Amino acid sequence: MKLLPLLLLLLTFLLSHETGADEIVGGKESMPHSRPYMAFLEIKRCKRNFTCGGFLIRRDFVMTAAHCEGDSITVKLGVHNIRKPEETWQTLKVKHQFLHPKYNTERSLNDIMLLKLEKEANLTTAVWPVYLPSRYNSVSPGQECLAVGWGWTGPKPPGSATLQEVELTLRNSTDCKDFNYFNKRSQLCVGTPNSRKSVFFGDSGGPLVCSGVAQGIVSYGNEHAKPPAVFTRIALYRSWINQILNAN
Q1: Catalytic positions, written as ranges
Q2: Span 43-94, pLDDT tens digits
């Protein structure tokens, strides 16, 4: 199966239209501000606008997918409904984008990026970093995790503008064998085949949270939102992450 990053799918589908973000497939609306690490990214690239998800890992750093890079990125924190500004919102410009040096656009390998914010976020009940795994903190097939984002429910918008979440099951790597470039060392296979729960357009860059720890980043999936989907395995990149954070 040809891999299709969720952002590329969206750009291909919408052609020249601006992107929007609605809801995760088969999920439910999150309790407002119950996922205070979530970040809504507004991205400009080649005179086009699109969106991705991301998540706060330090007061001045957000993690997302490398394929969400842009000419400029604005981060919104403390958001529940993307169309209804609240006092909880914090809007911050990105000062620097750190793509993984071995990011492979063709195969969507090493699909991870760190965003240095122009200034530190104010930590509140609606804005708070999520824990990251240690280098050797592994997750196992069968474990239930949470995917969170503002992505679509299907190929035709609109949907809910509110933050959505869905419980997904970690799968054996064999369930992702149809993805030509799936790499079990650096990626996670997530979502039960033949179920109606998955991530889709607009969810790129969002987290997979397992027992309160961000273990994965939404990378790519099936063009019809049929699970499983592929997430970047965060634990593998802790050395690189620490290097960037310590230097900045």
Answers
A1: 67, 111, 204
A2: 999 989 989 999 999 999 999 999 999 999 999 999 999 999 999 999 999 9
Domains 36-129+238-247 and 143-235 in one fold: yes
Residue 204, C-beta contacts closer than 8 angstroms, at least 6 positions apart:
5, 6, 7, 10, 52, 53, 64, 65, 67, 68, 151, 218, 219
Q: Where are the domains of the chain?
A: 36-129+238-247, 143-235
Superfamily name with CATH number, domain 36-129+238-247: Trypsin-like serine proteases (2.40.10.10)
Q: Which helix (H) or strand (E) holds 11?
A: helix 6-14
Tokens found for residue 16: 């020249």
Question: Per CATH, the architecture of 143-235 is what?
Answer: Beta Barrel (2.40)
The CA angle 228-234-237, to the nearest 5 degrees, is 135
193 prior amide bond cis, ω within 30? no
Which element (helix H / strand E) includes 243? helix 238-247
Residue 205 has pLDDT above 60, yes or no: yes
What is the pTM assigned to this prediction?
0.89
pLDDT tens digit string along 91-127? Answer: 999 999 999 999 999 999 999 999 999 999 999 999 9
